[in-house]
Amino acid sequence: MTAPQTANSAILPAATAPGRVGIRVADLDRSLGFYRDLMGFELIDRGRGQARLGAAASHQPIIVLREVPGLARAPQSAAGLYHFAILLPSRPDLARFARHLIDSRLPFGQSDHTVSEALYFDDPDGNGIEVYADRPRSTWPVDNGIVRMTGDPIDFEDLLGLLDDGQDRWSGMPDGTKIGHVHLRVSDLERSKAFYVGTLGFDVTADFVRGALFVSAGGYHHHLGMNVWQSRGRPLAGEDVAGLDAYTIVLPDRESWEAVVRRLGGSPPDNGNFGAKDPDGISFHLVYDADSTG
Asked: Which of 101, 245, 258, 286 is most buried as measured by Cβ atoms within 10 A of its Cβ?
């Protein structure tokens, strides 16, 4: 259903966090070669044109790939996915992954955001991906609830200096890896703010870049990012192109989940999984338990 956009002063519980993301791809075998064989995700199961992947030996999926043969590459000038972000448990994990990317000769971008260090690249269908590690929360610069993030270059000498040459190698996504945030292209930033802050109940945590907004629950630097850098006034990308099927927001308990569902004008379903769309038609699921996404 498409949710109403009425203002609401309710705040999401601090333990609210992103869950799995669903991604459309053109060739499942090719995508598994990237997500499993190169990035190091574990294949949980595969069937009916779909594959679910997680980290280490976990049976909880982080990414769900859905094959739609013949898809065009993900567009850069339509509403939809900008990137989804994989949060690694530690800075040494990021160092191992960075050296793995360098050794693999996969082109990537990078940025030191002060609160985190991040690597950026695309999958074979042009879907944007970030892999990052947070710095200790006690070191984040916060001013009146606004997290001050930067875009400085990563000190790779310092980062890779955490590793023992030849011994400390990437061996796959470690236990504890999860979706850290999802960054969306939207058509109207104020409309999206009214929905994600006013209706859903996220807090604004950073608006340091003109044309972008960052929101979260519980003071995290951001669980959702939104920008209009290339998508202002543009419609949602169609299902004939690669992109985001849906992302998930996980609430910590059924009571808070029911409250958000009702703010969205819905009736809480028995299965604990409520599907909705934002003002641009971007699909998301509200769940109150990681297992309830199926």
From this structure: 286
